[in-house]
What does this fold into?
Amino acid sequence: MSPATFTLEVIVENKPLARDPEGETIHHNLILKGGYSQVTSVRAGKLLRMKVEARSSEEAEQLVRKLCDDLRIYNPASHICQVRVLS
Amino acid sequence: MVKVAVIQFPGSNCDLDALKILQKTIKVPTDLVWHKDLKRDQYDAYVLPGGFSYGDYLRAGAIAATSPSIQIIREATEEGKPILGICNGFQILVEAGILPGAVLRNSGLRFVCKWTRLRIESTKTPFTRGASKGQILRIPIAHNEGRYYLDKDQLDELERNEQIVLRYVDENDIPTVDSNPNGSLDNIAGICDKKRNVMGLMPHPERASLPILSPSNHPEGRVIFDSMAETLEPSLGGK
It folds into this structure.
């Protein structure tokens, strides 16, 4: 199979027990104040979108997960990190 | 002759302050060393200064933590050499995994620049041995990411091992929510590693080491550098 280009997103956010004041502020001072009381929680994070050449989406995902761990794209002491394949 | 290195990263901006205090006030031979030029075994102690290395991109300290100089610092850690990380230097040590935990964005979501009162929680480090337990130091902070965090079980371990070296306290010398400038867990302002030779702190002792820059002309930050100098060379300490 010839390599194709995949787009992946890496989402880094604080662990559930580490407070997220940015998310809390957006929730309380914007969303709840604006009348959207159905929203019960907001967590802010960081998103990295990567284009990756790989033979399959599984291979692309594996590569990105590995680089996130190897290069400490997130700090395992305080963050959780998700990798999603978009296309 | 002992020699200290202040490591300069792209974006360091408290490097010269630390250098001058060490050279002119503490009078310990000190070089300013570009991070790519650091060689093994040339120095007896290292200071990672404050600033905004690599623009704080990704996370404060995360990119500098991958500098080859950090590998040399890691080896020096094993050799028991004194290593001090101030502000961004603390963030770099945490990101390199040399010190535990993480330093997150301030709970107030703002850059905070103010004088703080710190209580010495441990004198068993090369940077606090000249102080007494419970002593109060007035030292300023200046940061956007200073909220020290780690998981509960690790925090208990830190406490058990007496690795918490400095706490933010109020006028009555008690760690309170109001005296905590950034939301740090347990008012933690500075910690050391298990071997106790590496210390990281968010406050800037180099900005409180000259009488003219300090409240009531008391340069209470210099005990950190005096202690380090005394560790390296007993004749240098306490001048």
Notes: Helices of chain A lie at 21-32, 57-70. Chain A has a mean pLDDT of 94. Chain A touches chain B at residues 14-15, 17-19, 21-22, 25, 71-73, 75, 77-79 (CB under 8 Å). The first helix of chain A runs from residue 21 to 32.
